[in-house]
Amino acid sequence: MANVTAFGLIRVSSPDQKLGLEAQEADIRRFAAERGIDVLSIHTEIVSGGATIDERTGLLAASRAIAEAGADHLIVAKRDRLARDPLVALLTEQSLAKVGATVLCADGNNGQTPAEQLMRVILDGVARFERQMISIRTKAALTALQARGKKLGRPVGIRGKTRSDKGKSKSKPPFNISTGSNLPSAGQNATVSAL
């Protein structure tokens, strides 16, 4: 009997959420061990769950690794760690299905009945709603700080990529989900840890 293999994906939105990464990895490893699944490596992303598929270099690298290794699954700790955008979640599931793999969530709901599939679609919608509510709360908090005279933004003299720079200097064309072309390797916001 062949071993069931998987790659893990852990994701947080900012670098100061290291404990979140550790907890997700522990959940994935526990889930896999309980089911006799060999986790070949864990891909780490520090990126918003609402990022487009092209910006999800860790997810794309994990998908490519699954295809290359012929692995059975991509394991995430919770559904919202896969994506907070229902389209990204759906495209990921469809592209993995083309290579015979599935997404598994360590917190459950991995069945294929119509009711379980509906539940995943609902959870994806809730994740998108949560992302939008986080954005609204963050903007309100920043507005309140500004009203109190707090200076916001980068200190003078510190440069970084700004929203207006986004997409201006892409070295690779966008990911083509239907052909699987232009998959990036692990980038600055993604790392891979092998066992």
Question: What do these coordinates show?
Answer:
Helix 1 links the parallel strand 1 and strand 2 (37-46). The chain is an alpha/beta fold. It is built from five helices and five strands. The chain is elongated. The protein has a single domain, classed as Resolvase, N-terminal catalytic domain (Rossmann fold), CATH 3.40.50. The protein has helices at residues 18-34, 57-69, 79-82, 86-98, 114-147, and strands spanning 4-12, 37-46, 73-76, 102-105, 190-194. A five-stranded mixed sheet has the order 4-3-1-2-5, sandwiched between helices.
Helix and strand layout, with pairings?
Elements (H helix, E strand, L loop, with lengths): L3 E9 L5 H17 L2 E10 L10 H13 L3 E4 L2 H4 L3 H13 L3 E4 L8 H34 L42 E5 L1
Parallel strand pairs: 1-2, 1-3, 3-4
Antiparallel strand pairs: 2-5
Short description:
It contains five helices and five strands. It is an alpha/beta fold. The relative contact order is 0.17.
Q: Assign the CATH topology.
A: Rossmann fold
Distance between the termini: 22 Å
Give me the secondary-structure category. alpha/beta
CATH superfamily: Resolvase, N-terminal catalytic domain
As a percent range, the share of helical residues equals 40-55%
Q: Major sheet: order of its strands?
A: 4-3-1-2-5
The number of distinct β-strands equals: 5
Low-confidence stretches: 162-195
Instruction: Tell me the number of helical segments per DSSP (H or I, 4 or more residues long).
Output: 5
Q: What is the CATH architecture descriptor?
A: 3-Layer(aba) Sandwich
CATH class type: Alpha Beta
Tally of discrete structural domains: 1
Largest beta sheet, briefly?
A: 5 strands, mixed
Shape verdict: elongated
Please state the CA-atom Rg, rounded to the nearest Å: 18 Å
The overall pLDDT average reads: 80
Order of helices and strands: EHEHEHHEHE
